[in-house]
Design brief:
- The chain is of the alpha+beta class.
- It folds into two domains: 117 residues, Ribosomal protein L10, N-terminal RNA-binding domain (Alpha-Beta Plaits, 2-Layer Sandwich), CATH 3.30.70.1730; 71 residues, Ribosomal protein L10, N-terminal fragment, domain II (Molybdopterin biosynthesis moea protein, domain 2).
- It is built from eight helices and eleven strands.
- It has a five-stranded antiparallel sheet, sandwiched between helices. The chain has a two-stranded antiparallel ribbon with strand order 4-9. The protein has a two-stranded antiparallel sheet with strand order 5-8.
- A hairpin with a 4-residue loop joins strand 10 and strand 11.
- Helix 2 packs across helix 4.
- The chain is elongated.
- The protein starts with 8 loop residues before the first helix and ends in a 6-residue tail after the last strand.
- Associates with the pre-60S ribosomal particle.
Length: 246
């Protein structure tokens, strides 16, 4: 019998049903769109196609050397130099798109600029004359907070006392101690118990030093772009940056 005298019938029926419970379906799992990644091959192919399209559309290609790259600064460059196109894809992708030999190049002579690509660089496709491009980058050099590993441009020493950290909330005092600063919270104010050298000019910034400089709102990085070379579609010639002319 399914029922026993010790338990009411409805209790036994509930136990019977639970023993035949179906496992949870895995089909109805919700996957956040942020976890769905494009296939690397699709991303590369799209970049190659866009670079080749820009090379066909514009009359000039500028090879740019970029230091202290920042997303916000690159966005400004893109806005200011429209309708030109700026690409900062992986070097190998750019080289494949342009072609590295006369037999594989997408435009006559453009393989010359592909073979100059190295380190952190970008490609600017534009019809704007070289003098204007160089002038723009000579003037646009925004400052930003340096990151760990960058070279300190000056020596920073924070003076002992309460005034140095007076603008900071008392809640950050424990974090400052974790960054190596000799601090103490006294009557709701952060006291620096001794002079503290954050960094020395010419030396590499540690992760802690970079954080302290940011908290102190001291900027040591400068976003700079240098035009290394220029290719002109009408002539198919590559011009070194020192020889750039209209």
């Amino acid at each position: 019998s399914l029922f026993c005298p010790a338990h009411p019938p409805h209790h036994c029926f509930a136990r019977l049903c639970s023993s035949f419970a179906m496992p949870k379906s895995k089909r109805n799992k919700v996957i956040a769109l942020t976890k769905v990644k494009k296939k690397p091959r699709e991303t590369k192919d799209k970049a190659i196609e866009e670079i080749r399209g820009a090379c066909e559309k514009f009359g000039r290609v500028y090879l740019l050397s970029i230091e202290n790259e920042r997303t916000a600064a690159l966005q400004v460059v893109r806005q200011k130099l429209r309708p030109g196109r700026l690409f900062c894809s992986k070097n190998k992708v750019i080289q494949v798109a342009l072609g590295t030999s006369p037999s594989t190049e997408c435009q006559d002579g453009v393989h010359q600029i592909a073979n100059m690509i190295s380190d952190k660089c970008g490609l600017l496709f534009s019809d704007t004359p070289p003098a204007e491009i160089q002038s723009f980058f000579a003037e646009y050099r925004p400052s930003d907070f340096a990151r760990a590993g960058a070279t300190a441009t000056s020596t920073v020493v924070l003076a002992k006392g309460v005034d140095t950290l007076s603008k900071m909330p008392h809640s950050i005092e424990a974090h400052l101690r974790q960054l190596g600063m000799p601090t103490r919270l006294i009557e709701g104010k952060i006291h620096l118990l001794g002079d503290h050298t954050v960094c020395k000019e010419g030396e590499e910034l540690s992760a802690d030093a970079a954080q302290i400089l940011k908290l102190m709102e001291i900027k040591m990085a400068e976003f700079t772009v240098t035009v290394s070379a220029h290719w002109c579609k009408s002539t198919g010639a590559l011009v070194d940056c020192e020889e750039l002319e209209d």
